Every structure is written in structure tokens, then in C-alpha cells.
Amino acid sequence: xxxxMFCYQCSQTxxxxxxxxxxxxxxxxxLARLQDNLxxxxxxxxxxxxxxxxxxxxxxxxxxxxxxxxxxxLTNVNFDIQSFIxxxxxxxxxxxKAMAGLKKAHIDNYGEPVPVEVPKGASKGHGILVxxxxxxxxxxxxxxxxxxxxxIYTHSEMLIAHGYPELKKYEHLxxxxxGAWIDQKEVFAKYNIPILVTTNCGLIPLDSYADRIYTSGIxxxxxxxxxxxxxxxxxxxxxxxLPELExxxxxxxxTGFGKTTVLSLADTIKEAVLxxxxxxxxxxxxxxxxxxKEMEYYTEFAKQLPEDTVILCVxxxxxxxxxxxxGDIDGIPRLIDLGQCNDAIVGAEILTALTEVFxxxxxxxxxxxxxxxxxxxxxxxLWSLLSLGLTNIHIGPVxxxxxxxxxxxxxxxxxxxxxxxxxxxxxxxxxx
Length: 432
Description:
Layout: H1 29-54, H2 60-72, H3 81-110, E1 116-120, E2 126-131, H4 135-145, E3 150-154, H5 165-168, E4 173-176, H6 184-190, E5 195-197, E6 213-216, E7 226-227, H7 233-241, E8 251-255, H8 259-263, H9 266-274, E9 280-286, H10 296-304, E10 309-314, E11 328-329, E12 332-333, E13 335-339, H11 344-358, E14 367-372, H12 376-387, E15 394-395, H13 405-415, E16 418-419, H14 423-431
Parallel strand pairs: 2-3, 2-5, 3-4, 5-6, 6-7, 9-10, 9-14, 10-13, 14-15, 15-16
Antiparallel strand pairs: 1-8, 11-12
């Protein structure tokens, strides 16, 4: 990890190129990294605030904090290191509010998710594949394709859509093709149907499918048709012109565990913990990182966990292990998929409720977080967890490139953050 700063945001920079040891303005490398951290956190908050707005929901406190946070990173505005640490924690609280607002909008419009087994693989017929996170776009597409003989498939973070009652009711919402965002070039090339990219996690298309990919909402790709105002007539037309997919042999994913479903098991969970049938809960997931063998850590970690443990997972990192059959403990599934990365708020709400069930403080619960961390929304979610007072969070094995020893020291010293080692060593350290 690079332990030097780099800042080129003003005309004071060394040799008019950039400050790499300390800022001419007086900013040191720790402050520079904390400012970077704040900007990345604000980007994550903006993603959830944007999707809230799609449902007609805005929040003045969120908007005001984004303005304050961005302004504070301008040249010669704020040199106080403790103030940026404090602002990062505040950003975590604001992100909780944004995630909660988006989750409320989803539930108000589509009902609360319920557990569902989602077929993975193609069915006979025409199809459209939807990737990203935007449930509003998916809903509008489902409305416009109803009765047209087009099957709608989800990809990556759209998996949770199958758990929402008001989306699940559409019989042509057929299933999932592929897994995490990192497999899209392979999956999009394999299935000769139009693809709709709705939010982040889109990649520059390969030539093999460049003539049948579209964007909508915030997403944009070069030389790719962009659909405005939810008018999906062009993508529907192409779907009907392309050959039908053939029936495939299917596997499945299970998703859709909402707060109400999990807490309905609260008494069973308490009894299982007190009797020793459940020793530990693990919150696992986050962002997947492409083409990196180190990320196999999560597959091996899940496989090696003893049978008296339960995994709650969020984000696309779950595709490293969510096809494992881990069974259940007295009817409590050992793998509980809460949904998209923004559904981390559901995990936080469940943990808060469990503090009352067990009459314990948050950090006394038998819960450990083991999280991958790649992009900006993950930064905002991490600070949300830290703002709740959670300690002993394990992250890795691959960290974002901007993380250096200075910012890592801040996280370790102030929040007891721990770096992932090996599955064997970490499981032994956590479980004793």
C-alpha cells in the first residue's frame, strides 16, 4: 500500500504537478486520505439518495450533509484531523438514513421481501436480462412486457427483486442468469437477449453483445442506447425479434429474507443460542473483486464454518458462497440472504432488535462481520457500521488502492478494524 499522499486539486501544488509528501497548503497525508475517504463516502450516500428520489422521496438533512461534506474538502477549508474523523462517523449516520429511506420506499411500493427460491437458468422463450440495483426500472419493464411473451431475468444485485411481493406477482419474472457483476461479459455473451443496465456495475460491452445492450436511469455506456422516461419499446421490439432461448437445466438461489421474516424467528434464535445450537452469526458479503484468487477466501470461509454458525449476507460478495447448501438449525437457515448492498440497513435493524431480545449491547452479541470492500458505496456502508459503535469488523482480503497505512491506522486505532488473514486462522481467532 502506498503511504504517500497525492493531491493536485489547486494551483499551489509542487512543481504545478501535485503534492506527494505534504501539501503546500499545510495538509498532511493523513488529512489527505481522510478527505478522500469522506468524498468516497459521500458518493455512496448520493447513490441511495438518488434512488430514493426516483420514488419521490427526498431528505433535506441528507442533502445538506452532502453539501457540507463536499465543501469541507475544498482547499484551505478544514485542516483538523479529528474533525474529518468525526465527519466520517456523521457520514455513516447519514448513510444509514439514506439506506433506510430507500428501503422504506421499496417496501411501500413492493411490500416487504419474503423468502423465495429463484431458478438460475434460462426458460424457453424470448427474454430480457436486467442488471444493477434499480427496482423502479425493473417494475416499469415488467409492466410493459406483461402479456407479450417475454421472460424477464435478473442478474447480480437484482436477485432480491424476486422476493418483493409486488414484483414477484409478475409471472414472466422468470429467474436469475449469472451471479455477481464480474461475470457479466461471459453471461451477456452467452444469452442472445437484450440487456438492460440500470445503475452502477456496468462494464464496457464486448462486441458480441454491444448491439443488444441498453442503459436506463443513471447508467450510461459509450455508443449504447439510453432509455429515458421508462419507454422500453425499443428493447421490447428487439427482444421479440431475437430467437427464443432454449430451456436449461436449472439450479437455484434463495433470497428475500426481510426484517420481519428474520425477527419472526427471534424466539427460536434465542433458544438456539442459549442452548448452544448456534454459537455465532456471521454477516458476510460486500463487493466482489474481479479476477482475484484472494477472493476465494469467502468461499473457503463459508465452507469451513462449523455447523453451529449462521451466515447473513448482503451485496454481490455473497455470490462467492450463496450456492452452498448449508442446511438449517431448528428451522433457521444457515444462509440468510438479505439482498442488495443497500439492504445492509436490514442487517443493522435486525442486530438492533436482537440487542433487546438478548438484553445485550451490540458488541456483546454473538455476531462477527467479515466484509469485502471494493467501491465507494462500500465505504459509506463501512462507516455506517462504525457509526453504530460496532468494533472488531474484519475486512479484506483485497482493499481499495487508496487505503494506505495512514488511513488504516486511523481505522484500526479508533475502531478496532481487523484485516482478514486466512479462513483457518480467522475462524480459529473468532470462535476460539
